Amino acid sequence: MTQQTNKVALVTGASRGIGAAIAERLAADGFTVVVNYAGSQAAAEALVRKIEDKGGKAIAARADIADPAAVARLFDTAEAAFGSVDVLVNNAGIMALSPVGDTDDENFDRQVSINLKGSFNTLREAARRMRDGGRIINLSSSVVGLLQPGYGVYAATKAAIEALTSVMAKEMRGRHITVNAVAPGPVGTELFLNGKPQELVERIAKAAPLERLGEPDDIAATVAFLAGPDGAWINGQTLRSNGGII
Ligand code: NDP
Hints:
The protein is α/β, with parallel strands linked by helices. It has nine helices and seven strands. The protein has a seven-stranded parallel beta sheet with strand order 3-2-1-4-5-6-7, sandwiched between helices. NADPH dihydro-nicotinamide-adenine-dinucleotide phosphate binds next to helix 1, strand 2, helix 4 and helix 7.
């Protein structure tokens, strides 16, 4: 049985990868969780069952975060089910690596529409509808510091997220809502592993002084810290959770 907080956490892109680990961890910490997904309905529903089996409370809610109307409906769903939202975790994202000269419009538009506009869509709803005293946690990436070739558009969307994070923290003055970003280093999910030869994965894994890839649970622990009582005084910051890669 989990400890109950009566607080509601909405996690975007929680059907798999880092988002699923965040949803599971927040549920274990006593949050009621809205498990957002885009296409992976079965995985999202399986996660909800897993949370419920452990005594937690959760629902799955489909919404393409790039669509402002779908995001408004996502908040409607959360409010109808649980009253309001106390914690927003903007986790959903995609990565499509390509040198700038080889990047077509479709690649650019997709990464911007999901990573940047998608996070903007949920942040706008949160600004209008979130309960006072809440927490917002945006997923950036340590590529904003590493700035390797091929990561241009992806890193640009994440740099924009870090800027939005600090601006919005100031805009929430008077409402006791903190806004922070977590910037993981490489984590062994589909987003990172997809298309990388094993040799490259191993080389990247050794790049951090702690000499391994991050686990989704490493990132979930960082998010849980910012969402929980111990993170109360952190505001407007980007916290790199990456084993020291940068
Ligand atoms: P995954 O590809 O493993 O999972 C992505 C999740 O996002 C899925 O649940 C997917 O849902 C969801 N999603 C994708 N597009 C949308 C959309 N338009 N609307 C709603 N949900 C969507 O990625 P990770 O877990 O690796 O990444 C999570 C976050 O962490 C991302 O923001 C990523 O940029 C960031 N990050 C990841 C790192 C890594 O090395 N893995 C490093 C640094 C940052 P569905 O299954 O339904 O498609």
